[in-house]
From TrEMBL:
Organism lineage string: Eukaryota, Viridiplantae, Streptophyta, Embryophyta, Tracheophyta
Family matches, as PANTHER family: GLUCOSYL/GLUCURONOSYL TRANSFERASES, GLYCOSYLTRANSFERASE
SUPFAM superfamilies: UDP-Glycosyltransferase/glycogen phosphorylase (SSF53756)
Keyword Glycoprotein: no
Protein name: Glycosyltransferase
Length: 381
């Protein structure tokens, strides 16, 4: 009896080594620690190094005696810059490193954590999927559904995932019933052990209390100076611009963004992640007019404390690449969105935000300066 009382399950959590999955899974890990689970969190050396460098993660988790970090390589060379468009390179590298590891784990129950939205789990016949009829066009489908080239690496990855998925005892998804109930019911008819556990940062906040609510899981150094800048701006006056941790824009797109912000006449906070502009683009290449015209109206940082920024009352709108974490964070904060989807699930996320949830504008059809203006912060959930 005694041994039963003290038994607590041990979970190994292993995220794809990218900002979105690492952020969500660290929050899940902390919630499991609070529920008295043993947790081993497996990072890549690079991710672990970034977390130790830019966050207080070690102090934060030290209070959970049943938690430990472990790290392995990511299959890329030590001198690889790990910036720019590296998604597929990382996936390939990880496959090589993890294959021997996971073949040893046969017999251990497997739970699949989908950190994308369920609306990305489409097959070609979208007219048959309840909750998706009538409004999805081909260009709204996830990028991997729009190609018929079966040698496309992202299609291969998705097909491989589909083969592996039935081996899982359960699937957890980062969403919530009120947002995607119809789709979740449809998915449960195919996979009964499906659990919607989002938005994780809200549960995290509830369990850890509001004073300690915002803990950074950032792989880049957060520039908190933007919070003081925001505090000095009027209510709902600032457009927040951020394209997440993976998207890369060309110099032409950068110029459209810049002119759009300039022409809008609005205040803006712009996150320009190091490596997020393709090629060697420096400010000296930006024409003087938009550069000078926006100088007094904007704050530009390399990486921002996102949840704190979105919660700031000065933020009136969010120009986002439509990553799923960004979408959930914006919905929770009640900030309307302008959407510039980049890849994977972002096209379909963007269409849902515009057409179904009516929480923003989808600009996938026109990425130009005319669209970049601030809608008022009027929608809440
Ligand atoms: N993020 C952040 N600071 C920034 C930009 C992004 O903390 O300046 C975080 C954001 O809160 C989100 C994650 O990075 O949790 C990005 O994930 P998402 O799924 O939105 O997009 P991805 O980066 O995977 O394309």
């Amino acid at each position: 009896m005694d041994s039963q009382k003290t038994f607590s399950p041990h979970v190994l959590i292993f995220p794809l080594p990218l900002q979105g999955p690492v952020n969500g899974m660290l929050k899940l890990a902390e919630l499991l620690c609070l529920a008295d689970f043993h947790v081993t969190f497996l990072n890549t050396d690079h991710v672990q190094h970034c977390l130790l460098r830019h966050t207080n993660i070690q102090c934060r988790f030290i209070r959970y005696p049943k938690f430990r970090f472990r790290a392995i390589g990511d299959g890329l060379s030590e001198v690889h810059p790990r910036s720019g468009d590296l998604f597929m390179e990382l996936v390939d590298g990880m496959e090589v490193v993890t294959y021997p590891l996971f073949t040893e784990m046969i017999g251990i129950p497997l739970i699949y954590f989908d950190t994308l939205s369920p609306c990305d789990n489409l097959d070609a016949k979208i007219t048959c999927v309840p909750g998706m009829e009538g409004f999805l066009r081909r260009r709204d489908l996830p990028s991997f559904c729009r190609s018929s080239d079966l040698t496309d690496p992202i299609i291969k990855l998705v097909l491989n995932e589909d083969q592996e998925l039935p081996k899982a005892q359960g699937v957890i998804i980062h969403t919530f019933e009120e947002l995607e109930g119809t789709l979740l019911s449809h998915m449960r008819s195919l996979c009964p052990n499906l659990y919607a556990i989002g938005p994780l940062h809200t549960h995290h906040k509830v369990r850890l209390g509001s004073s300690k609510a915002i803990f950074s899981n950032s792989l880049w150094e957060e520039d908190k100076s933007c919070l003081a800048w925001l505090d000095a701006q009027p209510l709902n006056s600032v457009i927040f611009v951020s394209i997440g941790s993976l998207a890369v824009m060309t110099k032409d797109q950068l110029l459209e963004f810049w002119y759009g912000l300039f022409d809008s006449g609005k205040l803006f906070l712009w996150v320009r992640r190091p490596g997020s502009i393709a090629g060697d683009c420096t400010e000296s290449m930006i024409p003087v007019e938009p550069l000078e015209g926006t100088r007094k109206r904007g704050c530009i940082v390399g990486w921002a404390p996102r949840e704190e920024v979105l919660a700031n009352p000065a933020i009136g709108g969010f120009l986002t690449h439509s990553g799923w974490n960004s979408t959930l964070e914006s919905i929770v904060a009640g900030v309307p969105m302008i959407r510039w989807p980049y890849f994977v699930d972002q096209q379909v996320n963007s269409r849902f935000v515009g057409e179904v949830w009516k929480l923003g504008l989808d600009m996938k059809d026109t990425c130009d300066k005319v669209i970049v203006d601030v809608p008022s912060r009027s929608c809440t959930i």
